[in-house]
Amino acid sequence: MSERPGPRPRLFDTWSRFYNLRWFQWLTYRPVHNAVLAALRQSDSLRVLDVGCGTGLLASRIRRELHRTRVIGCDFSSGMLERAAAGSRDVAWVRGNALRLPFRTSSFEAVVSTEAFHWFPDQAAALGECFRVLTPGGRFLLGVMSPASEGMSRALRLGSRLLAEPSNWPTRRGLRAQLEDAGFKIETQQRVYRLLGGLLLPPFLTVATRPA
Ligand SMILES: C[S@@+](CC[C@H](N)C(=O)[O-])C[C@H]1O[C@@H](n2cnc3c(N)ncnc32)[C@H](O)[C@@H]1O
Fold first, then answer.
1. Which residues, in sequence order, are bridge partners of residue 139?
2. Is the CB of 57 under 6 A from ligand 1?
3. Does domain 9-209 have CATH number 3.40.50.150?
């Protein structure tokens, strides 16, 4: 079966050139990264995979701040990965698609993914892959913006298609249902506060486990 169309890696190759702008990061993604780090500190995760790692800002921080952790960052954009590699040699950077992760089953105690899930054209397949590569009992930390209603989620989906870069932001409830369908057990779902877009499309961090 052919894959549903998703955004092209070239979009992200271009974005990678100015992605790390400090003020942009502080206004947008940094608070979500902080929330992921705080959640990771709550238990030992020796091997952590960051899916859709972009320029590797979060993966590099995990490696720096959680000392015993081995970190792999995976992304399908070579532009993003080039910048990631320039930023840290202590993380392994791997080119790969979230829908077909190039890792063995049960390889990681934690999988994280921030601000990338809405781009995955087959979210069920991506969740299945995250579940597969986690060890039993391992944790999945998913940070993504969630519209307040199904109507808004649909409108955003339609708008993104018209712009020819399809994306899909599920509501909090929709996301929980998707995770449960993939076999995960939801632990927590917390709102992350940030300035840019924080009212209209607030980000949430959902923590789920692959049952042991
Ligand atoms: C907005 S960036 C987020 C990057 C990073 N996680 C962060 O928090 O800064 C979205 C990333 O998802 C990646 N991405 C989108 N679709 C993907 C897919 N199907 N497989 C792997 N990576 C993908 C893009 O290349 C991009 O680097």
1. 110, 209
2. yes
3. yes
**To which H or E segment does residue 144 belong?**
strand 134-145
| CA 118/CA 121 separation, integer angstroms | 8
| Token pair of 190 as six digits | 């917390």
Regarding the beta carbon of 184 and ligand 1, being less than 6 Å apart is answered no
Burial class (CB in 10 A: 0-12, 13-18, 19+), 77: buried
The helix (run of H) or strand (run of E) holding residue 160 is helix 150-162
Q: What would the pLDDT profile of 147-176 be if each residue is shown by its tens digit? A: 988 898 998 888 888 877 778 999 999 999
| pLDDT tens column, 15-63 | 888 888 888 888 889 999 999 999 999 988 799 999 999 999 999 999 9
Residues recorded for the chain: 212
User: Alpha carbon 196 to chain centroid distance?
Assistant: 18
Can you tell me the distance from the alpha carbon of 102 to that of 129, in angstroms, rounded to the nearest whole number?
10
Ligand 1, residue 19: give the atom nearest the CA: 9
Please work out whether the CB of residue 58 comes within 6 Å of at least one atom of ligand 1: yes
